[in-house]
Fold each of these.
Amino acid sequence: MRDVVVVGGSIAGFMAASELRTGGFDGRIRIVADEPIHTYERPPLSKGVLAGDEAASTSWTAASDESLALDWLLGERAMSLDPGGHRVVLGTGDELTYDGLVIASGATPRRLGGQPDLAGVHVVRTLDDALGLRADLDAGADRVAVVGAGFIGAEVAATCRGRGHDVVLVEPLEQPLARVLGPEIGAIIADVHRAEGVDVRLGVGVDAIVGDERVESIRLSDGSEVDVDVVVVGIGVTPNTGWLDGSGLPVDNGVVADATCSVAPGIVACGDVARWDSPRYGPVRIEHWDHAVDMGRAAGRRLLADLGDGATEPEVFDPVPWFWSDQYDVRLQLAGRADGDMAITDGSVEDGKFVALYGRDGMVTGALGWNWPAKTVRYRMALEDGIAWDEAVG
Ligand SMILES: Cc1cc2nc3c(=O)[nH]c(=O)nc-3n(C[C@H](O)[C@H](O)[C@H](O)COP(=O)(O)OP(=O)(O)OC[C@H]3O[C@@H](n4cnc5c(N)ncnc54)[C@H](O)[C@@H]3O)c2cc1C
């Protein structure tokens, strides 16, 4: 019997596995998933789950759908890979041999340098993380510090305000999300948080998290100290490639794949762990839910081609990336990349509804929608074919 092994049981791994099955692969598909439950949605973790919505994140029935005949190895961890011998070694010492391998091991939150292991200090990546943080908040935390105003930090700050906690949001950059959306949009996001009562501290880092067994305060790089009951660290993620050490596979800020998601013959990669050769943007690693869905599917199809099932010609994976974030009553959506110049082309900040376009070298690179889904989706579709900057911005 032919065998496919998928490492990582989240959205990218599951989509690759289901694409393989529905595309005609009739061998065994084993999914090595170190979390103890089937695939679930991560985006609600910083939103509905934290707010207390019990139904916001449950494992998908699709993932345990018996008609897909997937063998889930829940709670198992891949420790190493021997591509020459076509073997994955598990934490139990067991070895899985394969004809095809999907690398979908995702990413892990970064920690602060010297971050102490104190009660009350959290990251949010898994359902367990989110439920642990929520329990800590429910236990009577008044003051919450969120370190890092990226998407996840900004969402956690918004959700905590919605729950009624005092929130301080600490960001070393000059504006929240400045690296992703630029300083102008970052300034608008900072204003929204301030208007909601968040104490936004910009341009400062965290020198120390202070406490004995439990966190008591954070010391900032401007010399101030803030008393807190809970700290949430949201300073980005690193791709989970440690289990590939010594395998000889190319790793450089993620496992390196070509434009068709192929890493080596019979090995594909997808989702947050994969840095692939995007025809539009060059080598890039993207940490978005929809991207993990689409790249999971594309990687599954690529492996079908390697294994001689389904399409025989490998397809180039060339999407316009898509992301959303919910903060208070604001829905942000980004199509493409926020790269280069920025101009608000539709609506206005005052109206609380607008689209900002980004552009470089005469072409629009991305569209950011602020509470305007229909228009943002239209830009997303137009970006597939390319939009001239002069035409769009006038
Ligand atoms: C709190 C939060 C909110 C988010 N909100 C949004 C949003 O609003 N919009 C959006 O577009 N995106 C959002 N994202 C990002 C999105 O969830 C990720 O891009 C997506 O989950 C990536 O999927 P993945 O399958 O590539 O990796 P992951 O979801 O990271 O899954 C990888 C899986 O592999 C497992 N694993 C790792 N190493 C091994 C190993 N050696 N052996 C076995 N298993 C292993 C991991 O434990 C994990 O279960 C959010 C993410 C988080 C954490």
Note: The chain is about 25% helix and 35% strand.
Amino acid sequence: MNTAGDTQAHDKRFLDAALRLARKHQGLTGTNPSVACLLVKDLGHGPVVVGSAVTALGGRPHAEPPALDEAGVHAKNATAYVTLEPCAHHGKTPPCAQTLIDAGISRIVTAIADPDERVNGKGHQMMADAGIEICQIDGGAAARRVMAGYLAARSEKRPFVTLKLAITPDGIIGSRNRGNMKISCTASNRQTHLSRARHDAILVGSGTAIADDPNLTCRLPGMETRSPLRVVLDLKARLTREHQLISQAIQFPTLIAGSADAPAEWQAMLRMSGVQFLACETQDGQVALPELLDDLYARGIQSVMVEGGAAVAKSFLDEDLVDEIIVHVGGDPEYPETDICAVKSPLSMQNLPANFELCQTLQFGVDQSLRLQRKKN
Ligand SMILES: NC(=O)c1ccc[n+]([C@@H]2O[C@H](COP(=O)([O-])OP(=O)(O)OC[C@H]3O[C@@H](n4cnc5c(N)ncnc54)[C@H](OP(=O)(O)O)[C@@H]3O)[C@@H](O)[C@H]2O)c1
């Protein structure tokens, strides 16, 4: 017989497994969150997964119907582990809460309620009214990370913004006369590529686009198709067709956030190269960032990773538009100790923004990686 302690341990184990599965389609489900559903039942030798699914690419179908299909007759009296409260609103298909009720599940464990006003507690209520045991357990922090873009979009109507920088222990991010410098190690760089795959867009300033000529893609083996939209702030029309962000735009989408007054022939060159052009509002001669985030949100972008450089990172921080910071501190940077052309990072180990709190420290090869989250008011 199962004790309450056993049930608690099983719940944590299966919800954690569901959260890991949800990560699989992070950044690939459009305006829907990547949600996972596991159906678990004791078939005589302890609880086993009888059905599992994650939100499909593009956002439909949701995870619950395919997980129920896989479970077949075993869905009856199973426990459903779903990373987000099942939807309660009718579209062309019935709400997932109703589909779970019709399949005869007896219990549901979820990590967080859905802030979407069409759901927000209604999914749980529908199932409770049908006699299903509802259990919300403390998987909240991990679930919020997986669904950060969706949650920010629903609550703040703008994309979730991650600022990612690689710095030397002295807080240097580059050198004006040396182009792209090696600050972080291979293991850190791979993590950056993984982070890119989990965001809807990557954003840099024209300073970085010109100095480093980066391609800002995800180049992890097997994940080459996971590169998000590349966004460059370029009000002075400085990028040319020779820069990788332009020359590869057919293969890897690029959007230039530029000026409505940009020369017509330059805009034509962008169009011919397959680059999207967004005429931006400006403030003090720079791209107005809140309005830019609004425009990206309107295009379905729910998460943006800002990858520098110094000026752009500072603007996002100064305007309080950053939700999460990831800093890789190079353990063995190829960087001279004295460099009069050093580009200083707007943050350093000694000077972390006061309105952020450290929530994770990891070691990637010789580098240390810090994750900071904006403090809750
Ligand atoms: N270690 C790292 O993690 C890392 C990452 C990236 C870059 N870097 C380094 O950083 C250096 C480049 O940094 P940077 O400061 O020179 O250039 P940047 O921040 O990449 O780009 C700055 C440019 O972006 C444009 N911009 C438009 N709107 C803006 C706004 N609201 N706020 C700020 N900029 C805006 C402006 O050019 P327009 O007027 O032309 O629009 C501005 O000159 C390079 O040395 C590069 O290697 C390091």
Note: The pocket of NAP is lined by residues 165-166, 173-174, 180, 183, 204-208, 211-212, 233-236, 238, 286-287, 289, 307-312, 315, 343 (CB under 6 Å).
